[in-house]
Design brief:
By secondary structure, the chain is mainly alpha-helical. It is built from 39 helices and eleven strands.
Length: 893
């Protein structure tokens, strides 16, 4: 028997039985085997109302929530969206997309836009669009919301597919609406819906930077907040007790990388969690970043925290391309910015195309940012660089178990070490090591040879301050792990001292080496090569700090020790002999330096070979001291003979070859051809810029000397202007107190005077002297030279008596510091005589020069240019003893 149900109720239950279950028209009788078939007659579902006739109900709200009360730093993005939607022309819907990293604020931006402009639309509707099913469900909800006021039963009965189709037909039939599709995963998911629409505006938010141009959409890229906006956002969230603590807010914004979601999460957590201040949150963030990035503020949405939002992208990428997650894990261990992509080509088991595909997938999710740097990449050509937001790094690492994290970090360290050039000191290696530095710092142990090599490379590249700071960092970490007396700790102290000197503080380098020497003697022994190396460099920086005679004496004392310990032919022993000669010259005896180097060269040839780099450098320095001893033409000729040899052995672009060209130009000028010197330096400058870089100290030295010889060739104003242009560059690269920077200021004053403004030269030097005294010391030779030239330009500015008095006060200091026979005190004596004559006492000038001449002949030689000038001036003032004056400036200063 088949019972007949009523038209408006489920089937009646036969025989009063109530133990019945219903499934798809079949009744299963309790406790029985037979089945009773049933035919169910359902009432036909009502159709949805005609979409073209349905109007928007009053008060219909289609947004998920109210916009955030604190919203800063996005005015330009809001304007860009408005412009794109308002200025769009042509048939069809006008669409725009907002593209960016998860948590960067895409959804909040769309919500703010919709809220601000809702009065300009008949309808604003929000659809969560993370996948095709959610898009259909969102459109169906849109349809039911519109249709329920007319036929709620039809709206309720419609399937998702029917309701979504109705929603599209409504959108196609009506203008003046805005629909926001939030978090589109693939452009293909939204394409079918856009194609069928003829009116209205569509705003899309997405993490995926792929496929939009095919839809005619150029997304608005949403970047991180500017720092000022980050601080303002935090100040509006943390509460009044912390909102005025700008420095801590800036520090927190820095730690959170200016990511709006992280800032909002942190601000709400601080505001709603008792006893939590900005300072405490910073500490917690440092101690347990994974926990804090996953922490939900009281009353907050647990799905809208940084860890959850970013984890969604990780999970999807893992399912598509596991290598991409492996690459992201490696990048999370390294520095956040500008990792050369080619380093990743060495990932075991991955080839370059596979790595490129992995990077492309990560970039499409906005998890990494790719840029291209031309010219000096790891591969010697343009280089693709990849950057990762620090919060992505933190969340990525927090998802890993400690052992897995350590293993990945070790893999990252291996990639960095594999990318290190064979000889990091060579110019072609410098940009590579510079690019590796932040990533090496992140993953390498402080005792890593790779990190040490990178630090040395930076120093050789001319980045003295970074080398100094990196060796200090290495030293502190090694000292902490190995102890103050460990040989590796002592080695890092030694290197830090050397680069501190190169960075412009020779006195500090000297003092640190002086402190280190007895420790190395105690730990390693007085005769250990490392101890002797410290003694060698202590002597060197003693000289660089201004005491050339002490440096000479220290090297002289060291020489027999190195001969005994290492042997007379050991390269380190030869280096010490070389430096004895150099500092003998710096102490005032250029002829002795020349002779010592001349005697040393045959030993270099016998031990190392005629073509060895150290032999060639010694020949270079022999030429220099030959010129300093008074024979500029011979210095020029020796360097001219050396240049093709050093070119052949080391190459035309080797730094030592370029140094030889530089010295050849200088001695060509000293030999009397200033124009040729200028032209040679002008030719050299672009080569040094190309090989060493525009900011390398040696490149800047060439610029400095090009200005000098431009002035000597007759264009004092051009020299002044070139030095004025150079000064801010040296200040930026080396610092305002570096002795090279001070030298540029000094010479800029000199050429200001030569260009016709002696009073300005005087005033500039007067300001400069206290700076020299503070940085180098009142008795440093460079300080004394500046006082010398201040006296000269004081006289040139019209006060001969003041110039005379300044020279008179300076002379005993120069003689005490440098020695009476040093060339500099002899120059002071000459100018004291000259300005005594100009001040009205030619007889006294004559007598002073008569006393000076035999000293010049004995110390410098009878034919030295300065001796000849002294003889000529003696003749002049003898003739002028009647009180006549003359133009000055032809003497030596």
């Amino acid at each position: 028997m088949t019972p007949t149900p009523s038209a408006d109720s489920p089937a009646s239950l036969p025989n009063g039985m109530d133990g019945v279950a219903r499934e798809q028209g079949r009744l299963y009788q309790a406790a029985r085997d037979q089945t009773i078939n049933q035919v169910t007659h359902q009432a036909p579902r009502r159709p949805l109302p005609e979409s073209g006739t349905v109007q928007v109900p009053a008060g219909l709200a289609g947004l998920p929530r109210r916009p955030a009360a604190t919203f800063v730093g996005r005015d330009a993005a809001l304007t860009a969206i408005r412009q794109a939607l308002q200025d769009g022309t042509g048939p069809g819907v006008i669409s725009q997309a907002v593209l960016g990293l998860g948590g960067v604020g895409k959804s909040e931006l769309a919500l703010q836009y919709a809220h601000r402009h809702r009065g300009q639309y008949r309808l604003v509707w929000w659809i969560d669009a993370d996948g095709p099913d959610l898009i259909r469900a969102g459109l169906a909800a849109f349809a039911r919301a519109l249709a329920c006021g007319i036929d709620s039963v039809a709206a309720e009965q419609a399937t998702v597919e029917e309701a979504a189709a109705w929603a599209l037909s409504w959108l196609a039939a009506h203008p003046d609406w805005l629909v926001i599709f939030d978090n589109i995963e693939e452009a293909a998911d939204i394409e079918p819906y856009l194609a069928g629409l003829a009116h209205g505006h569509v705003l899309i938010t997405t993490r995926r930077d792929i496929g939009w141009h095919y839809l005619g959409i150029t997304p608005v890229p949403l970047e991180l907040l500017p720092r000022s906006a980050s601080v303002a956002l935090l100040a509006g969230l943390v509460g009044p007790s912390d909102s005025a603590n700008v420095s801590k807010l800036e520090e927190l914004a820095e730690q959170l990388g200016d990511l709006p979601l992280a800032l909002t999460q942190a601000g709400a957590y601080i505001n709603r969690t008792p006893r939590t201040t900005v300072a405490k949150y910073l500490r917690l963030l440092k101690e347990a970043p994974g926990r804090m990035h996953a922490a939900t503020p009281v009353g907050g949405d647990s799905e809208r925290v940084v860890a959850k939002v970013l984890a969604l992208s990780h999970d999807r990428i893992q399912s598509v391309n596991p290598l991409a997650i492996q690459v992201l894990n490696l990048l999370a261990c390294m520095g956040p910015d500008n990792m050369p992509c080619s380093i990743l080509n060495a990932i075991p088991g991955a080839d370059e195309p596979a790595v490129d595909e992995a990077l492309a997938l990560l970039a499409s999710y906005s998890l990494i940012t790719s840029t291209t740097k031309p010219g000096d990449g790891i591969l010697g050509s343009e280089e693709d660089l990849v950057s990762v937001h620090r919060l992505i790094q933190a969340v990525t690492l927090a998802r890993l178990e400690p052992e897995r994290r350590d293993s990945i970090s070790a893999g990252a360290a291996a990639l960095i070490s594999a990318a290190l050039p064979e000889d990091p000191r060579r110019p072609e290696a410098w940009p590579v090591c510079r690019a590796l530095l932040p990533h090496a710092r992140a993953v390498l142990a402080p005792t890593s040879p790779t990190l040490w090599a990178i630090a040395l490379s930076l120093g050789h590249s001319g980045d003295y301050r970074t080398a100094r700071d990196l060796f200090l960092e290495i030293h502190n970490r090694v000292n902490s792990s190995l102890g103050a007396d460990h040989p590796d700790t002592l080695a890092t102290r030694h290197e830090h001292a050397l680069w501190m000197g190169e960075a412009g503080d020779p006195a500090a380098a000297r003092d640190q080496l002086a402190d280190l020497l007895p420790i190395r003697e105690r730990i390693l022994g007085a005769d250990h090569p490392d101890t002797l190396d410290t003694r060698h460099n202590l002597a060197r920086w003693t000289g660089r700090a201004g005491d050339a005679a002490a440096a000479r004496d220290q090297f002289t004392d060291l020489l027999p020790i190195r001969e005994r310990v290492l042997g007379i032919d050991h390269p380190d022993t030869l280096d010490t002999r070389h430096d004895v000669a150099r500092w003998t010259g710096e102490a005032g005896d250029a002829a002795a330096a020349r002779d010592q180097l001349a005697n040393l060269i045959p030993q270099y040839v016998r031990v190392l070979g005629a073509d060895h780099q150290e032999t060639l450098i010694t020949r270079h320095n022999l030429a220099y001291w030959t010129g300093e001893a008074g024979d500029a033409a011979a210095a020029r000729d020796q360097l001219a003979d050396l240049l093709p040899l050093i070119d052949r052995v080391l190459g035309a672009d080797h730094p030592e070859t370029l140094s030889t060209r530089h010295e050849l130009a200088s001695w060509t000028g000293e030999a009397g051809d200033a124009a040729a010197a200028r032209d040679q330096l002008a030719d050299l400058l672009p080569i040094r810029e190309r090989i060493l870089g525009t900011d390398h100290p040696y490149t800047l030295l060439t610029r400095h000397n090009l200005a000098y010889w431009t002035g000597e060739a007759g264009d004092a104003a051009a020299a002044r202007d070139q030095l004025a242009d150079l000064l801010p560059i040296r200040e930026r690269i080396l610092g305002t107190d570096h002795h090279y920077t001070l030298s540029t200021r000094h010479d800029a004053a000199r050429w200001t005077g030569e260009a016709g403004d002696p009073a300005a030269a005087r005033d500039q030097l007067d300001v400069l002297i206290p700076l020299y005294a503070r940085v180098l010391g009142a008795d440093h030779p460079d300080t004394l030279t500046t006082r010398h030239n201040l006296a000269y330009w004081t006289g040139e500015a019209g006060d001969a008596a003041a110039a005379r008095d300044q020279y008179a006060a300076l002379l005993p200091i120069c003689e005490r510091v440098l020695g009476a026979d040093h060339p500099d005190p002899l120059a002071v004596r000459y100018n004291l005589a000259d300005w005594t004559g100009e001040a009205g006492d030619p007889a006294a000038a004559r007598d002073l020069l008569a006393a000076l001449l035999p000293i010049c002949e004995r110390v410098l030689g009878a034919d030295h240019p300065d001796t000849l000038i002294t003889r000529d001036s003696l003749t002049y003032w003898t003739e002028e003893a009647g009180g006549q004056s003359r133009a000055v400036g032809d003497g030596f200063i």
